[in-house]
Amino acid sequence: MIRRMRVAASLIVAGTWLGARPAEADSDAVACARAAESAQSLRSAGKLVEALDRVPACLHLRCPDFVRRDCEALRADVQASLPTIVVRARAPGGDDATDVRVVVDGAPFLDRLDGRAKPIDPGPHTLRFEMPGAEPIETSVVVREGEKMRIVDAAFTTPSQAARSQRQDETAGEPSRFPWPAAIVAGAGVVAIGAFAYLGLTGLSDLHGLQGGCGKTGTCDPSEVDAVRTKIWVADGLGVAGVVALGVAGWLWVTANGTARAGVAPTASGARAVVALSF
Question: Of 15, 131, 203, 246, which has the fewest beta carbons less than 10 angstroms from its beta carbon?
């Protein structure tokens, strides 16, 4: 505020001072004072880069001494307050990248990276990094007044890497789902295996009983023999069903939060089954 008053006073003094100057110097004095006022207005608006660009116009040797003194003080203030950033980028392979174009808030900022600090106005900014053969990157930063040499990083990925990372991010954001179908089928498989073990053991026990009793004399009741045979057959069926159910349950468990593909691939001697899993 004080500096704005000083610049305004400079304009008044410049107007008074013009009477003692030749006519050809009149326009120079007014232009210098107006340049100083414009630079101060830009500085107050936070447009420090543009303000610093305007300062040389009020530091010209043709400017009055009092205008140049105020303008010199303004330049020192802007230079101290003007933030700078250093943009750093890495290629998909991890090496430092230089062939990177940087756009800030939709306006060109850098054509390539050279590791040097670049002035930028304080406040929020959106930076877009573009590199041939890689996915563009956008990042938002809030640059503080007086902040110097702030590092802004960008790590590029190839299109395939970006798509894979996006899928992983989407999967990470989803709540984990318990594979109830797999659990139910697995439970049925366990029950079938248990029944297989029970019927198999009791069936074999009954068979040994028949072999040690009526089997020696050949007087076994056919109904008793059929009952033992049926029990063993049922046990065998339950055993096969239990194994199949556990296999299906395993497949359902694997595919619950992943992707499974199965097919037949031709070979020189015929064909082969192919199973692919991804997570």
Answer: 15
Q: Spell out a b/e string for 34-73, using b for 16 or more CB atoms within 10 Å of the CB, else e.
A: bbbbbbbebbeeebbeebbebbebbbeeebbeebbebbee
From the list 39, 16, 41, 43, the residue with the least C-alpha distance to 29 is 16
Q: CATH homologous superfamily of domain 84-161? A: Carboxypeptidase-like, regulatory domain (2.60.40.1120)
**Strand, coil or helix: 102:** strand
**Per-residue confidence (pLDDT) for residue 69, from 0 to 100:** 93
Amino acid at 207: L
Q: DSSP character for 20?
A: G
**Under 8 Å between Cβ of 88 and 127:** no
Q: Please identify which residue in the block is written with the tokens 């306006």.
A: 107
The stretches in the chain having pLDDT less than 70 are 1-26, 160-178, 215-218, 257-279
- Is the whole model's pTM more than 0.85, yes or no? no
Q: Per this entry, what is the length of the chain? A: 279
Predicted local confidence at residue 264, as pLDDT: 47
State whether residue 232 is helix, strand or coil: helix
Report d(CA 63, CA 71) in Å as an integer. 10
Domain ranges of the chain: 2-81, 84-161, 180-278
Are 172 and 193 within 8 A, CB to CB? no
